[in-house]
Amino acid sequence: MAASCEGVFDGIYDEGAGSDTEVKAGQLYIDATSWNDWYYVDLDSLLELTDKGDVAALQQAQTKFTPWPIPQTENADAARDSSGMYIYWFDIFGKGMSYYERRGYKPTAPQPEPEHWTFAVHRDNVRTNGGSVFETSYTSMEELPASASSFVDKTFTADTWSERDVWVDRTEMLNCIMGNQGIKINQVLSSWLVFNIPPIPPTYTFNNHVFILRTKDGEYFALQLANYTDSKGTTCYLTINYRKIAL
Amino acid sequence: MSHTSLFTTLALAALPLGTFAVEPADSLLTGNDLEQVVVTGTRSPKLLMETPVLTQVISHADIEKADATNLKDLLQQVMPGVEFSFAQNQMVHLNFSGFGGQSVLILVDGERLAGETMDDVDFTRLSMDNVDHIEIVKGAASALYGSNANGGVINIITKQAAKKLNACLDARRAKHNEQRYGLALQGGSSRWSNAFNMTHTTQDNYDVHSDDGAVARTVTTIFGDHTWNFADKALWQPSDRLKLTGRAGYFFRQVKRSEESPERYRDFSAGGKALWTLSDNDVLEGSYSFDQYDKSTWLKSQKIDTRNYSNVQNSVRLLYNHTFGDNVLTAGADYLYDYLSNNKLDAVHRQQSADVFAQLDWKLNRRWEFVGALRYDYFSDHHIQRLTPKLSVRHTPVDHLNVRFGYGMGFRAPTLKEKYYDFDMIGIWTITGNPLLKPEVSHNFNLSVEYVKGNYGFVVAGYCNRVTNKITSGNPYYASATETMPRLPYVNIDRLYVAGFEATARARWSCGVDARLSYAFVDEQAGHKDGQKLASPYLPARKHTLTAHADWTHRFSTLLDGMVALDGRFLSGIDNQEFKNYYKVEEGTITVHYPAYTLWKLSAQMSIGKHLKLIFAVDNLLNYRPKYYYLNSPVVDGTNMMAGCKIRL
């Protein structure tokens, strides 16, 4: 009777199932919910920790990431029409996001970044550090070939300039106006999670294909978005599988 | 038959609060609605023609003819002054003669429903497959029903199982792959009966297209869903003076808005009721009701079902009716435990509420009848208390003519959501609860004249409502200079006036023609004393609405019944003032025009023998499509053909 006062059949839901932050080796868990920060991942340093066998340090490095704020303060000295906030109107409630108008620009300092990094995430956006990406048809890391040689002749896509994708300033969102960071992002790797708006509230399209990241140093890494929510269903908690592929 | 024994008979037939109603004969040909027993207006069984509180009845025959799937389909087809629109996320919002969903109390067999979205109950859970009839009382009725009975009460009375074992299967298909399947099993003996109903519906998403030049938000895709609805009701009558009923239900809906992460809605309900006829003069009823409404998101690829909302209501009710002479004394008490868990609230909240009420139905003579009621309600959260009175008078100056007058006070206690909401709506604004909200209070005056003789019936009813402290979402504001996201608070607004009248004419001829024409006028004025404008997301009531129905029913032979029906509704256009810029209210408003529209439906039903009925319909006969699919525009995209059948075994 007492239980029924506050509900029955709790068991049919997956509330609180497991721990969000415990990941296995070769897996990242990033709280990328912030609209104002990038989170950088250095895969080389993670592999070093793996090789050392320092389980605690690896767990920490795979789940704790430092936010790198997106500059939003106007900086007149910044190069015009490069780094900065780009104000766009989108026809969110009409014909959709492919209809837009540029409404303004505010120069800001460039995006700060750490000395060593491989890729970075901001909600559904991904950048690489001078790398390029190829999308495979594999949906499991185990299916991948042991050598990267089979990917060498594939077409890899480098990061490209974007001023409408990295949504930052939402203060005029209801008026369909968004402040976006002007920055290079990797459109192929970013396709692992697509933020659809309309409808309101937005929906997400999730692509669990394995992507191959070729770094500027010629290394190959396999990356796969395994999940994009926490156990309570909050979006932009990213679980990412990673693995280095030798040539 | 003495009045006392008449009362007892009615009580046993209908049960106070309409636990069961007797299933009508399986025929398109039905008797006179005036013999219908109604319970909603007085919480005691009364003949429709004699009740001092004007009660509109949507009969079982009306429901059958409408072939409606749920309450929304039915009300918008047969009731004037009713319109449904979309809230955010395409949740359905009701405007019921100037009152929104939270101010109209919707009951099933007298029991409240848990759960709400954007102020309205989930209308898809109110399936019509097991409904005997619906009683509608307009105007404030908080003296009998407590909070939320501000603008009226809609009481859905479910069927009582037939004693004879039978089964019924039905199916219907329509546009956008809309499918409906139903199963009904019932049976029993002289002392018990059981009815089981199941309904499954599904509909695909579909796109709608607006012209260029929209000045308000438009919808581009209408989201389909699929639902499952199960209900079982058992009756056991161990003696002539005692009836025990039990029920259980399960509802599931999955909206097809997102392929990856569809939203799910579930409801678990159960209850028991005992009706004990202590003597020819005394009837006691006790009931317990459980209702749990959950919302969750199904993360398909991860196979995770995460719940983000649960509203659980446990209620206990006692109702006692004592007759003396022609008079009835009614007394009752209710207790409700309300639990709300919502990830958009600051925390889990609980509230207990209790009430006591009494009513005297004094029948001076056959020409005059007076009903007076008084109720005290208590809510534990912030210790809200209300005392609400009600007075109704029926005068029958000449036979067949009833004049009814009523005054009722209504109130709506702020919900836990309205007090404690804290929801970042994807950065648009934070919807913020207000623990200091006052209860919304209304004063309703109504006057009606009803004339029914032979095959003809006419009703004219006027009403006016003065509402103070209406609870609604207010204008957006910034809590501080450093906040970048506005807050959208819940507020009390100073005043709401809703006045209007309705006129209905109905005729039935022995040749099998049944016709009904209803007109409703509603004038709704809301605002602050200082003239400050409101950013209400919902359209006010349209001033003029007209509904028309005509059908011809004919028995061609002992094996063949047929019916052809035409239903139409007209709603006048309306201009609504909406903010140009929700972030800068000072920029003023623009006028958004919602044009008049009319929708017509032609349907035909054919019963072949005892076992088969075929149903065809062409809805939106005139192929109406709104120029702009605003949230408050009718969701139709042209003519819709429907075909179905019902097999009875």
UniProtKB/TrEMBL annotation, chain A:
CDD domains: HmuY. InterPro entries: HmuY. It holds the Pfam family HmuY. It comes from the Bacteria. This is HmuY protein. It comes from Hallella mizrahii.
TrEMBL record, chain B:
Residues 182-621 form the TonB-dependent receptor-like beta-barrel domain. Residues 1-21 form the signal peptide. GO terms for molecular function: siderophore uptake transmembrane transporter activity. Keywords: Cell outer membrane, Membrane, Receptor, Signal, TonB box, Transmembrane, Transmembrane beta strand, Transport. One of its GO terms (biological process) is siderophore transmembrane transport. It is found in: Cell outer membrane. Pfam families: Plug, TonB_dep_Rec_b-barrel. The keyword Methyltransferase does not apply. It comes from the Bacteria. It is a multi-pass membrane protein. Residues 49-153 form the TonB-dependent receptor plug domain. InterPro entries: Beta-barrel_TonB, Beta-barrel_TonB_sf, Plug_dom, Plug_dom_sf, TonB-dep_rcpt-like. One of its GO terms (cellular component) is cell outer membrane. PANTHER family: HEMOGLOBIN AND HEMOGLOBIN-HAPTOGLOBIN-BINDING PROTEIN 1-RELATED, TONB-DEPENDENT OUTER MEMBRANE RECEPTOR. Belongs to the TonB-dependent receptor family. This is TonB-dependent receptor. It comes from Hallella mizrahii. The lineage of its organism: Bacteria, Pseudomonadati, Bacteroidota, Bacteroidia, Bacteroidales.
